[in-house]
Amino acid sequence: MEILSSQLQATSARNAAVADTASAITSDFDMFLQLLTTQMRNQDPLNPADSTEYTAQLATFSGVEQQVQTNDLLRELQGAFTAMNMGQLSGWIGMEARAEMPVNFTGQTTTMQIAPSPLADRVELIVRDQNGNVVANTPAVLGDEPFEWAGLDNNGNPLPPGTYTLSSQSWRGEEVLEERYAFVFGEITEAQTLNGEVWVTMENGVSIPSDSVQGLRRAG
Question: Which of 34, 73, 146, 186 has the most crowded CB, counting CB atoms within 10 A?
Fold first, then answer.
């Protein structure tokens, strides 16, 4: 799925950049320590280095050491926060989540919810396949109450199995006011950590970041 793939790639790139930065700082710290030790060992006893210069070097050394320790602490905190999130999310398993997410359609009826513009006098449900092509556009309820999508095209025929994106178009007369992604309900079956970020997987196989979930309710 392109949406999930792009999110995973962005998260992976972000974490890789942090790891590279931490590695560079640690390497600079080790090199600085070696240079300072070599300088002290090989200085001319008849013409030692100025104390002010040593003080400045030691202050720089302290700053680099502090930066390395800070990065180590941040990595430990990130691991602790991830573990805490996983513990909290254990109670989400079996719950129905509401989120803007694609639908892995296999013939089932999907519960969804839209947020039409307050100026709209009608709303259309727009269904796009994984290539972005519109495969159905049908009238939808003008309100924010959940309703069922049966997975049919404009002729009333079932759409083939696949990944679809649902959105609502708000109309006023013949003018399109706005288009928004629809909120889809799905039962959470799994929570896992991917590149330091917690993701939840729905019963239909769709995975999203846990912070994308807008609401929870009991399944059934």
Answer: 186
| Per-residue model confidence as pLDDT tens digits over 10-43 | 444 544 544 555 555 556 666 766 776 776 677 6
- Burial-class residue 97 by CB neighbours within 10 Å (0-12, 13-18, 19+): buried
* CA–centroid distance for 216 within its chain: 18
Q: What is the 3-state secondary structure (H, E, C) of 189-202?
A: EEEEEECCEEEEEE
In 100-206, beta strands by DSSP E: 103-105, 110-113, 122-128, 134-140, 147-149, 162-172, 175-181, 183-194, 197-202
**Does the CA dihedral 192-197-202-204 come out positive or negative?**
negative
Question: Does residue 199 contact residue 192 with C-beta atoms inside 8 Å?
Answer: yes
- The CA distance from 120 to 196, in Å, is 41
pLDDT over 70, % of the chain:
62
Residue 64 has, within 13 A of its CA and on its CB side, a CA count of: 18
Spatial neighbors of 178 by CB under 8 A, at least 6 apart, are: 117, 169, 170
pTM: 0.56
Distance CA 202, CA 111 (A): 13
Q: What gap in Å lies between CA 32 and CA 61, rounded to an integer?
A: 7
